[in-house]
Specification:
This protein has a single domain, classed as Porin. 6% of the residues lie in helices and 53% in strands. The strands form 4 sheets. A 16-stranded antiparallel beta barrel has the order 3-4-5-6-7-8-9-10-11-12-13-14-15-18-19-22. The protein has a two-stranded antiparallel sheet with strand order 1-2. Strand 4 and strand 5 form a beta hairpin. It is globular.
Length: 362
């Protein structure tokens, strides 16, 4: 009888007059994703070393695993939570050295009918492209994507006044970091508008100062990212992204002036057959002061940052909706004076690359 009473007490969740009501609207989803690759680069850095502009398929002339990702998502009427762990060459070569296996881990509470507050570790809200191959048209990442923040920690306030408009306000530890590096915080905005069933247009920004606390000069950075995704026809997809980033007191020849970065991406995909598609991407990136890419001495003995353009051509075969096989080639071309690559013992401003990807998720 006593055991029955204890069991009844806990099953009804009554404690000192407080009753917990089970949330019957809750659901939990578990997922997984894997991407394997073979890649070859003309830049001679060695099979065990990561390529310049590393992230996706970062090693040459090897078979490798880009990512093994495990995800969990809990949703209910008043609460939600997301978590993702991942392993492979992508997190090893390009993710945070702190909490390296955590892609995201956050919890949220609904504070009004269309208003949510979430806190924790997040994937970035910035970028024309996402990090993982399955999330993009192309497998490789454009140069601007490599220098935008990929991960962030803090809180965000999300508001969706209607089915077409989504707004978010982000308060973050900093630019591409989980752990705070100074006493200053960063703020960002997401504004996404759905263009009917065919696509969306979004504006994303991030404002902050990553200057160490012991340096008095401010290096306030403003990142602006404008993205258009649009289905021109049922077979033809288009993605366009433009970025403008500025940073105070960062110009090479005059440290009191503001430096800027310009970038543009255009990616298009056409479905040739029901299971076969072709895609093309053009990109341009310029960081003349090197405040994101770092500074180099070019062949003219000028101190500069990277200026690079690229062209990508790829084919994708999808035997099912949750699998793909992609064959992709790209040519990156630096400014003629920036010979940062090495081919057959000769310094050059160009790199050729080819990669074969196979991915599956559930």
């Amino acid at each position: 009888m006593r055991a029955f009473g204890i069991a009844f007490l806990f099953s009804s969740c009554s404690f000192a007059g407080f009753t917990q009501v089970k949330d019957t609207s809750s659901s939990f989803k578990f997922g997984g994703y894997a991407d394997a690759y073979y890649a070859y680069y003309s830049d001679s850095v060695g099979a065990k070393n990561y390529q310049k502009f590393q992230a996706v398929s970062p090693r040459s002339n090897v078979f490798g695993l880009n990512v093994l990702q495990l995800t969990g998502q809990y949703t209910s009427e008043k609460y939600r939570s997301s978590a993702a762990l991942f392993f492979g060459d992508i997190p090893a070569s390009a993710w945070s050295p702190v909490f390296n296996y955590i892609q995201e881990a956050n919890v949220g509470i609904r504070i009004a009918k269309k208003l949510w507050l979430d806190a924790g570790f997040f994937k970035t809200h910035i970028g024309t492209e996402a990090l993982l191959p399955r999330e993009n048209i192309a497998s490789s990442l454009s140069v601007i994507t490599l220098y935008e923040p990929w991960f962030q920690s803090g809180v965000k306030l999300s508001y969706a006044p209607n089915a077409r408009l989504s707004l978010c306000l982000h308060l973050l530890n900093g630019y591409n970091t989980f752990v705070e590096t100074n006493k200053k915080k960063s703020v960002g905005i997401t504004a996404l508008y759905q263009l009917g069933e065919r696509g969306s247009i979004g504006y994303y920004n991030l404002l902050g100062d990553e200057t160490p606390d012991n340096i008095k000069t401010s290096h306030f950075r403003i990142l602006n990212n404008l993205v258009l995704n649009y289905d021109v026809t049922s077979k033809w997809k288009l993605s366009v992204g433009v970025d403008y980033i500025s940073q105070a007191n960062s110009w090479i020849s005059d440290s009191t002036k503001t430096a800027s970065i310009y970038s543009a991406i255009l990616t298009t995909r056409y479905q040739i057959r029901s299971k076969l598609g072709i895609y093309i991407r053009g990109e341009f990136f310029s960081d003349p002061s090197g405040f994101l890419t770092g500074q180099i001495v070019d062949t003219k003995n000028n101190i500069t940052g990277y200026t690079v353009s690229g062209a990508t051509l790829g084919f994708e075969y999808k035997s099912t909706t949750n699998t793909y096989v992609r064959l992709e080639g790209r040519q990156l071309i630096m400014d003629p004076s920036q010979t940062i690559f090495m081919t057959n013992g000769i310094r050059t401003n160009q790199r050729s690359e080819i990669m074969l990807h196979s991915g599956i998720w559930f």
